[in-house]
Amino acid sequence: MAVQEFKAESKKLLDLMINSIYTHKEIFLRELISNASDALDKLYFQSLTDTSIPLKKEDYAIRLTLDRENRTIIVSDNGIGMDEKTLQENLGTIAKSGSQDFKRENASEDVDIIGQFGVGFYSAFMVASHVTVISRPYGSEQAWKWESSGADGYTITPCQKESFGTDVILVVKPDTEEEHYDEFLDEYRLVGIVKKYSDYIRYPITMLREHSRKKEGTEDEYETYTELETLNSMVPLWKRDKKDVKPEEYNAFYKDKFFDFTDPARVIVSRTEGTATYNALLFIPGRAPFNYYTRDYEKGLQLYASGVLIMDKCADLLPDYFSFVKGLVDSQDLSLNISREMLQHDSQLRLIRTTLEKKIKNELTAMLRTDREKYDEFFKNFGLQLKVGCYEGYGANKEMLKDLLLFHSAKENKLITLEEYVAAMPKAPETEEKPEGEAAGTEQPKTEGQKYIYYAAGDSVERLSKLPAAERVLEKGYDILYLTADVDEFVLQVLREYSGKEFRNISSGEDLGLETEAEKEQARAENEQNKDLFAAMKEALGDKVTEVRLSTRLKSHPVCITSEGALSVEMEKVLNSMPNAEKVESKKILELNGSHPVFAALQKLQADGNTDKLAAYADLLYNQALLIEGLPIEDPVAYAQAVCDLMAQS
Ligand code: ADP
Ligand code: MG
Fold first, then answer.
1. Fewer Cβ atoms within 10 Å of its own Cβ: the N or the C terminal residue of the chain?
2. E strands, 273-325, where?
3. Does position 639 have pLDDT exceeding 90, yes or no?
4. Which of 503, 505, 514, 508 is nearest to 418 (CA)?
5. Is 512 in the pocket of ligand 1 (CB under 6 A)?
6. Cα(312) to centroid of ligand 1, in Å?
7. Three-state SS letters, 559-598
């Protein structure tokens, strides 16, 4: 009998297949089992119309046989089988998929066949030096043997086989220095591979396994016995109705599969039919993985094609800001052999991702509304990721994320959402009718009723609650968001406003909308009156400040520093603390409390013409203000000396 060559180009392809398409040799077993499963499906499908087929659903099975001595692994099925012609067509031509044809021919039926690419079978050559396929089609007495040792070609000869179906026999390659094959002859290793990739094949995958037990009637004598074991769990948890699955089952599944010892905070079960047919089972972890905020953490969902694992961490299924989500997606529309590059451009996958994104958001929103304690815990774990997501890409995803954010409320002394902040804002009275002809936008801000969302940024809530500028805002009955994470203020800058309310840093020099027109007028007049005093102090402080003026935001403190422009004092601190950062400097204004005794002292120094002392006081006050803001002062020794001098004088 003549050796037949593989069809044109097939040789090259076979080489490519074996050496580069698959990164893990172990997937050969996944491919052969999937083929067996497809063969069972085809026969089962035929049995729906052909009542002469004697098998009941539970009779269909895949059998693994391991023979260490002869170095063989056999994958058998009692499926549809192949005759000479089909062997020739399907195994003689690489990239020819009989399953794809079958799918096309039965397109109107709901057939869930795994193969469609026509290359999986050849992965057997990654581990086998010789492959024999013995197959007998259902309904025929004649069996056929296909044999090949790889690229050189194959032979097909008639042979005998007891019953219909297919045996694929691999002779495992010998171990070499570089490559190890013996591991595939290890029973535990094989069982592990089946569990990993083929746990949810709908037919039982059985194997005769050796066990040992105490001999009956003896104390310490053992005997070995063999038992036919089913290796796979068959019905995937994600295909079962959520109401039929106990929460413990989901939790155990999560912990087992995703190596966590804490129950998930939330389980999301999602199934869709239609444009993207898939089942998804997602988990929001109960705690952040230890490496979550490091570069080592790899996001992604497991991707299954009809119950067979094809990728362990498919990153394209999750946006970065939801990278904490674990879980899996199972789709019928994907092929087993799809590569990462192809997946990236897969429109199905993009559709799935968009749907999942919405699901995750809805779940988090539901948790926020109905289980606040749990959400707070979640936010402690992953809130930073949401904030970073909001800020990244110039706020491209802010609409998606802004309602999921929590910030510390000064009034409530707990975490609140922006929505809650705005809902609690004291309402402004109705705006008056504009006189006709007046241009829009010239209207003065209302001073009654809260106009802005106030915030203060710093290291800790403790410290922020003592900020001089906080006092007046709180006294007005307005809440302040205390921002303590480095990223917080950048997030608010990207958001710009929430529900039409702008954010205002209470330490910024901008108008905080706290005073009435009359108060403002009075402040202007007082600033004018003390013009010379401020000029003298500004002169003494030089470039350190851009202005010295009276403050409208101080109540009991003598002094504070505010900033002008987009860069706040806190942002200066954050940015300058980054390694290798170019130093930035915010524009600072020294603000004084006109009703504080210190101010009277300054006025007196100015009136007495005591310029030196005034300069020294200006410096002291400036340094004090820096210290209150948590900023470093330039010359601590000089500052301490100046304070001591003052103490010695009194
Ligand atoms: P795919 O599964 O993507 O179609 P494969 O290279 O894995 O490609 O298999 C090629 C074809 O060989 C299959 O489509 C199928 O028609 C046939 N085949 C492979 N294994 C079996 C089997 N155990 N029983 C019946 N047919 C098989
Ligand atoms: Mg296949």
1. C
2. 278-284, 301-305, 308-314
3. yes
4. 503
5. no
6. 24
7. EEEEEECCCCHHHHHHHHHCCCCCCCCCEEEEEECCCCHH
Per-residue pLDDT of 163-182, as tens digits, reads 999 999 999 999 999 889 99
Where are the strands (E) in 264-398, listed by range?
266-272, 278-284, 301-305, 308-314, 326-331
Q: Is 270 in the pocket of ligand 1 (CB under 6 A)?
A: no
Q: Which residues surround ligand 2, an ion (CB under 5 A)?
A: 35, 115, 120
What are the backbone dihedrals phi and psi of residue 114, each rounded to the nearest 5 degrees, phi first? -80, -50
Residue 321 is classified by DSSP as G
Task: Calculate mean pLDDT across residues 419-444.
Answer: 66
* Ligand 1 in reach of 534 Cβ (< 6 A): no
How far is 88 from 84, CA to CA, in rounded Å?
A: 6
pLDDT exceeds cutoff 80 at 109 = no
CA of 121 to the centre of ligand 2 (A): 6
* Cβ within 8 Å of residue 620, ≥6 positions away: 639, 642, 643, 646
Between the CA of 166 and the centroid of ligand 1 the distance, in Å, is 11
For 16, 241, 393, the CA distances from 342, given in Å and listed in that order, are 17, 32, 25
User: Measured from the CA of 34, which atom of ligand 1 is nearest?
Assistant: 2
CA distances from 546 to 506, 570, 589, 636 (A): 18, 17, 6, 22
Instruction: Calculate mean pLDDT across residues 39-48.
Output: 89
Placement of tokens 């009435």 in the chain? 516
pTM of the model: 0.73
Q: Which domains does the chain have, with CATH numbers?
A: 8-230 (3.30.565.10), 237-382 (3.30.230.80), 406-426+449-514 (3.40.50.11260), 517-650 (1.20.120.790)
